[in-house]
Amino acid sequence: MDISKLDRKLIWHPFTQYKTDEPPTVIIRGEGSYVYDSKNNKLLDLISAWSVNIHGHCNPIIARAIYEQSLKLEHIIFLGFTHETAVKLCKNLSTILPPELTKFFFTDNGSTAVECALKMSIQYWKNKGQNKSMFIGLKGGYHGATYGSMSVGITSGFHDAFSKLCFTNKFIPFPETWLGDENVEEKEEKSLAMLKEHLRSCGSEIAALIVEPIVQGSQGMRMCRPSFITKIVELVRQYNILVICDEVLTGFGRTGTYFAFEQTGIVPDILCLAKSLTGGFLPMALTVATLDIYEAFLGDSFEQAFSNGHSYGANPLGCAAAIASFELLIKPETKEAIRIMSRTQQEEANKLMKCEKVERVRVHGTIVAFDIKKPVCILSFKEKCKKQGIILRLVGRSVYVMGPYTVTAEELRNAYDIIATDRKSVV
Ligand SMILES: *Cc1c(COP(=O)(O)O)cnc(C)c1O
Q: How far apart are the CA of 282 and the centre of ligand 1, in A?
C-alpha cells in the first residue's frame, strides 16, 4: 500500500495549503526521542510531536498503563458516574498545584479546555448577577480553533477567515523579549499603559484576562518576562477581573517549573491544561478552577449549574495515560533531565547569539527559539533538517527547539550544529 498516495487521495491535514505544501512525511514508528520514516531514517523529534510529547515516543510505562486500563474500563459517561482513574489523576495533580486550584473539569483538547474556561468565567459572573462578557488577551496569543478560543486569539493571524463571527475582546501588545534586548522595559510600559486604558474604559465589562504565561507557543515561542505577567494580573484584579492561565503548552515542566505561572508569583482563578497532560498519548484536557468559581455555580436549579461537557470527558484511558505521565514527571530523574536540558538550552542559546544568521534568540526552561534573518523557504528548510536527521518547525522566520525531556545534552548540541552553529548548517 502506498501510504503517501492514499493519504493525498483521502486525507485533509490541518493548517495545510495543498497547492504549495509538500506531501507529509510518513512515520512508521517512534521510540524515545526519535521517530522513523518509511525508509527507516531515524529523526530526532525536536517539536515534541506538536508540543505534546514530554517522555519520548512509545514510552512503555504509559503504553502499558493504557493497555491495562483498557481491559478494566474503557469509558463511562461522566454525568452521574465516576471512576477511580479520574479521581486518582486529580488527586495526583493537586499535589503539584497550589491549594487554591481544587476543582477539575475534564474536556478533550486544548481548545475545549479554553472554551470551558471562557464559559466558566461568563457564567460565574452571570450567576453573581453581573453581565460581563468580554475578555482581555495578549496580542498574538493562540488559544485554540473553536469560536470562543478563536475570539480570544483573533490577533494570532490563524483565524482571519472567521473573524466576523468571533465576539469582540480587548487586546494589549505582548512585550516579547530576547537575549540582549534593550527595549523590554519600554515595550512593557506601552503594554501596561494600554491595559490601564482598557480597564478605565470598560473594566466593568471584562469577565477575565486570558494569558499564555511567559511563552506564546504558536507565535514561534515568543517570550515575555515573568514579572510582566505578575504586573498585568495585579492590575486586572483591582477591577474584579478573573485570571485564566492557558498552560496548554507551557504546563508540565516546559518552562523549567511544573507550570509557568509558578514563576510569576500569581495563582490563576482558572488553569487550562492539555497537550502533554497524557504524555502525548491521548487527547485529554483539564480546566482547573478555584473553590470560589465552583461555588458560584451552586443553586437550587440547573440554571446555575455549569452547562458544559463532552462525550469523552474524563476518558479512563486518557486518565490512565495522564497518571503514568504524572508519575514519570515527578521522578527525580525527570526533574534532573529537565534541569540538564534547560542548562544546555541556555548554553546553546548563548552560542547562537554569536551566530550571524539569526536574531532574537530567546530561551526559557526547556524551550529555545530564534528568528532567521534572511527569508527562508520552508520546504527546503524542512528537507535539509530531515536529511540531517532532525525534525523542526518553522513559524514565519522563527525556529524553535523543544524536544521531549528524553533528548540528551549531546543530542541537543549536535542538533544546534546542524541547525545554525556549524559552517554547513541549515539556516
Ligand atoms: C495548542 C494550544 C491550544 C489548543 O489546543 P488543541 O489541543 O490544539 O486544541 C490552546 N492554547 C495553547 C496555548 C496551545 O498551545
A: 14
